[in-house]
Amino acid sequence: MTYCVGLLLKAGMVLLSDTRTNAGLDNISTYRKTFVFENPGERVIAILTAGSLSVTQTTLARLEEAVTDLEADPQHSILHTPTMLQVAEIVGRTLAQVSSEVRSKMDHARQAASASLIVAGQRKGGGMRMFLVYPEGNFIEATADTPFLQIGEHKYGKPILDRVVTPETSLADAEKAVLLSMDSTLRSNLSVGMPLDLTVIARDGLAVTEARRIAPEDLGFQEMSRAWSQALRDAFTEIKT
Fold this sequence. Notes:
By secondary structure, this protein is of the alpha+beta class.
């Protein structure tokens, strides 16, 4: 399993994913789940993946193929289609097609395979948009009322986002929020694991502002985790019943 989260704020977008993929307790691997498509100054798109590795890898491979194919219809390339809504539609169609193909093969073995994606980005002249794309290809969009989207093992990291994230949250505080959300998930679910991939896209920057891999030995993340645990213990002690 996995955990991915994306925040859509007035200041920009902050995205975080883990890298653990497992097919049983004795088959755990590390795979990147954050993918960036970028034409600096013109367009930037980040895609986060959760679910069946065969589905997500095939979906991303087809999206990349359409981007690099000089003879491909621009309406099928996420770096050339006119709007972010159409980007989400292309991703949704591709995911649905791949999911259907894989599912038909897996049915013979009575196994299931599905995936979901977070698609976030901005094109020149347009606003920032973020979508959660379901296995069937349909999607929902982040809004001012719900400025974050999650896929995978989301329940453990959701409470802090519900309490602290608003559209006015700064990028620095947003980084802290997603990292603490991930820390809560790491502590409660063994199917989510480090290293982590953090991506920040500032508003109207039309390029990735920050891309950082956070390893298990990262001292900053370790200190943040310890400080958060201590703060929770202190708050618990001080609350009167």
